[in-house]
4a-hydroxytetrahydrobiopterin dehydratase
Amino acid sequence: MARLLTSEERTLKLQPLMGAGGWALVDGRDAMEKSFVFGDFVQAFAFMTSVALKAEKMDHHPEWFNVYNRVDITLSTHDCQGLSSRDIALAELIDQAAASAA
Ligand code: HBI
């Protein structure tokens, strides 16, 4: 069962993903979000396929919305109704997948 990030973990591990990292906290919910824009739908879907396979291996899945070349992603952990280390790991994996999709 995943546990919520402590305030120290949020400072040390979550903050680096925010700001220039592109992730932002969601208003009114203990979750993080980021939007990605690709060259076209096929590139966006290839990114989603890559993330989906890795998320399945992690057994930790994003909430996401796709329209054409844009993918909006929200991460939070259902088990503890908030941000856990699993969300940080998945965010880092997602950023790596986006970088290699570019
Ligand atoms: N994905 N985002 C998210 N949050 C969860 O709590 C979660 C999940 N994927 C699978 C899952 N939980 C459970 O099936 C496993 O933790 C057992």
Notes: DSSP finds three helices and four strands in the chain.
